[in-house]
Amino acid sequence: MKSLKMLLSLLLIGLCADLAVAQTMETRDMEHRIDLLLHQMTLEEKVGQLVQYNYGDVKNPEQLVRRGRIGSFLNPPADAGEVNDLQKIAVEGSRLGIPLILGFDVIHGYKTIFPIPLAEAAAWDPELSEQAARIAATEATAEGIRWTFAPMVDIARDARWGRIAEGAGEDPFLGSALAQARVRGFQGEDLSDPQSVAACLKHYVAYGAAEEGRDYNSVDISTRTLREVYLPPFHAGVEAGAVTLMSAFNDLNGTPASANWFTLTKVLRQEWGFQGFVVSDWNSVGELLNHGVAGTPAEAGAKAITAGVDMDMVSGIYADHLVELVRNGTIPVSVVVRAVRRVLRVKYALNLFDNPYTDTRRAGREILNPEHVNFARKAGTESIVLLKNERHLLPLDKSVGSLAVIGPLADSPYDMLGSWHARGNPKDAVTVLSGIQHTVSPDTKIRYARGCPITGDSTAGIAEAVDAAAVSDVALLVVGEGADMSGEAGSRAHIDLPGVQEQLVRAVVNTGTPVVLMLVNGRPLALPWEAEHVPAILETWQLGIQHGNAVADVVFGDHNPSGKLPVTFPRATGQEPLYYNHERTGRPPQAENKFSSKFIDIPIGPQYPFGYGLSYTTFKYSNLQLDQSSIGPGGTLTVQADVTNTGDRPGEEIAQLYIQDVVASLSPPVKELQGFSKISLKPGETRTVTFTLGPKNLGMYNQEMKDVVEPGEFKVWVGPNSTAGLEGAFQVVRR
Ligand code: GLC
Asked: What is the pTM of this model?
């Protein structure tokens, strides 16, 4: 038996070795093909591969393609046949036949629009995120897109910043897990699969740390914060195999991200070994002049490509100046060749040389098919967070006598899609009103009233809304932000309910009819009055084309909500930036101590903390176990706890594990998420959740910016959110 095992393991080792050799051979073959191509390319053709234009902005795209003066278009025609015609010019009409790579912002779906990424992050479900990204890739590739400018993996700690909607929230651990899931979904098992798209980790790096939460604003953070908070999701995405990154608009401590050798080359290439290419964000090469680090476009181009930006999105500077910069000796041709090699690598990996065209029959059967649409509904239900449910007002009974469905977002298809909704069409979106209408019994009387606009000061419709609520059993109030009030250029100085919506809420609540508040928003909102006076509150975000059905599934109990907040909700805008994993201060906030770190005009702490979310059932945590009381700096530790469903209906719980390095050479965060586990439990059922902690979880960057595990005590919690849970401790000892 032993010899058989030995034989099998030798065979397995041999097979793995063969696989590795095969991959290496493939790589070697690809590099050889790239060498041959580079040898044939003129300098102009080389530079052409580094040029990307917006398809709709180019007068004569065919001519550029035929002359080999462009490597990529973004926002190409929304038709596989037209894309094939364009590709045909490149492949069959240009001198060397190098295919184009066509990019598009497929951020949370292509035509089947899923929840905005921040909403999907509330599901804490990498498998769900991976599947959503895979469906998005399938639909996008059916229309000739082979590169998406996603996932956006910027950590966001300031809810004033509109682009908080596009990422996974404030935490590097959750953000890294979802970055990897989305890369896997977009790129699939095999990037050469015609249904795979190249992922693009963006916006590299620290774009979310813009001062004041004002988009495109300066970023000034410590190297420690850069390495411990903003870089990890990018590193995770690179480790998951992402083949492109996008350099950001912002400067980083004075050096713009699109001319930052430290991040683009030292970290990305030398430390992480990234082999793909970097595309600049829209005209961010040109904006180096606005940043004041380049005096001419040519200087901007030289700085960007030398730092490590390989492809220039729409500025035209690479097209206009790189050839001359090489010819006059300003930049060595090797810098251009290096960038071209990286771009060609990705085109080969996508198999564009051997399979450049799209099967035009795919779109009809793959886009918006029932399986995709049903998955969008599932993703929506999983993303909803139950914030409050006094006296178990929810779930409602489908045979409820009468409902008032009120609010500017109750019947607004466009706003269900959220920002960056690609080629999603509002006509495909299910509104809250429609979802409710299709779920309740035919005998239920539904009264709809818009109440007020999303923004503006018109209160003319509030009386009608009050009348509807006054004669109904329950009022469903759907309020929040329009789709365009978050996302790019969507920063808000006040993150409460826009316009006169709060007046609407107060008027409806004052009728005495029980109110269920449903938030439609792309960021945390400051809602202190609502949090205190409304009995039930659902965070429903912007859930995409199935928003209304997902909300109805939760409101009427067909789905028990399990979402947990991926971002902290403040009591007031003035608390921003606000996040749970902050460093400790010398004067931690104490209600009874005036001279402690707090505001004098609001209570201490957030309205709703990171990781928070309720269920229609209840869960109990017990029996925390650590398998060791001490480990060496390189050691690992297993942490277990039991979770019991103590309620009367099945539910899902996202158990979370947090640590605290009690004493360290630099002030450690009060808590850090280092594990989560989503489990389904029947009433009365108990399951054990298990986590492993090791150097990747316990490490920190010390004074010398070395990633080390320092000896000393660590606390550990397992619980339902970042403020509660069973507490334990262990030692890291120098062995
Ligand atoms: C935009 C965004 C970026 C997007 C790009 C292409 O300005 O910053 O996220 O991918 O341009 O649309």
From this structure: 0.96
